[in-house]
Amino acid sequence: MVLRESFDVERIEAEQAAAGEPYREFLRVPSLSCGMYLLPAGGSDPQSPHAEDEVYYVLHGRATFDVGGHEHLVHPGSVVYVPANAPHRFHTIEEDLKLLVFFAPAEGSRSRPGRARA
Q1: What's this model's pTM, rounded to 2 decimal places?
Q2: Is 52 buried (19+), middle (13-18) or exposed (0-12) by CB count in 10 A?
Q3: Is residue 51, in this structure, part of any structural domain at all?
Q4: Is residue 78 part of a domain?
Q5: DSSP symbols for 20-52
Q6: Which of 9, 58, 68, 84 could form a disulfide with 78 if both were Cys (CB 3.0 to 4.6 A apart)?
Q7: What CATH number is given to the structural domain containing 76?
């Protein structure tokens, strides 16, 4: 990965689609990592809790987000914070979701060996 000062969401999405990845990291420094997460309408979110704090910014789509048993309707412009180790997932995905994901510190930096992102 080449470190750049700016990123183009459409380019990231095109690279992600070409690779067939639901999640694609595009920035990683020790204190922060950023990625794009795509979930299809009617799909399921297989992720498990992360050892790092996390923020989602919804670029496109509509769904319900459950974090620690509290449900939130999300839509373009929604920002959701998830504390480290909190169970969370998107469900009832009404429209394809395109999400920017921010981890602090960088994803996996606090994780136990062998833990992988779903």
Answers
A1: 0.86
A2: buried
A3: yes
A4: yes
A5: T-SEEEEEEETTEEEEEEEE-TT--------SS
A6: 58
A7: 2.60.120.10
97, two tokens: 């979701």
Write the CB contacts of 17 (distance below 8 Å, at least 6 apart in sequence): none
Is 2 within a domain?
A: no
Count of the separate structural domains present in the chain: 1
Please name the helix (run of DSSP H) or strand (run of DSSP E) that holds residue 5, with its range, or none. Answer: none
Which residue reads 């994901």 in tokens? Answer: 101
Sole residue written with tokens 């989602």: 56
Does some domain include residue 74?
yes
